Amino acid sequence: MVIGCDPIDDKFRIANNSGHKVFILESHDTLESSFGYMKYNFRQFQKGLTRRISGNFIEPNDTSYLGYMGGKWEMAMIDDYKNSIHVFIIDSAKFYHAVLNNEEDFRHTYKRYDLNLLQLMKINWLIVYPESSLLQVDNK
């Protein structure tokens, strides 16, 4: 008997060249719901109601990938993301500080990258943080 799952396309990678642990969020829509979940999860962790903070973390000087299950990223960009993906790389220390201080504006805690399929292919599906400054969107 063979048991398996759908194949995962893991060509989309993010290299964290900073000295800080970062969170990765990706979206084709808005970020507000993701930040809301992250704030809730962090508060639950603070209260001892959960054992760990969930999320896609990348340690300093490490590389991780955004996997797409059941198909290829090229098709996902067209079908699911409507040709634009938003990647948010969030400095975990800045984010925790903002949550602990009940800040409402989180723009200083992340770098935002808005990418289409051609841009992803041009950078060989690799975002290098923080060096990918040409791809960053102003957080204002």
Report the principal-axis shape: globular
In angstroms, what separates the terminal alpha carbons? Answer: 54 Å
In total, the number of domains comes to 1
**What proportion of the residues form beta strands (DSSP E)?**
25-35%
Please give a structural write-up:
The chain is α+β, with helices and mostly antiparallel strands. The protein has one domain (8-137). It is 26% helix and 32% strand. The protein has a 5-stranded antiparallel beta sheet with strand order 3-2-5-6-8. Strands 4-1-7 form a 3-stranded mixed beta sheet, with no helix packed on it. The termini are far apart.
Features:
140 residues, alpha+beta, five-stranded antiparallel β-sheet, three-stranded mixed β-sheet, 4 helices
Secondary-structure blueprint:
Elements lengths: L7 E9 L5 E6 L4 H15 L9 E3 L3 E8 L3 H7 L5 E7 H9 L9 E6 L1 H6 L3 E4 L6 E2 L3
Parallel strand pairs: 1-7
Antiparallel strand pairs: 1-4, 2-3, 2-5, 5-6, 6-8
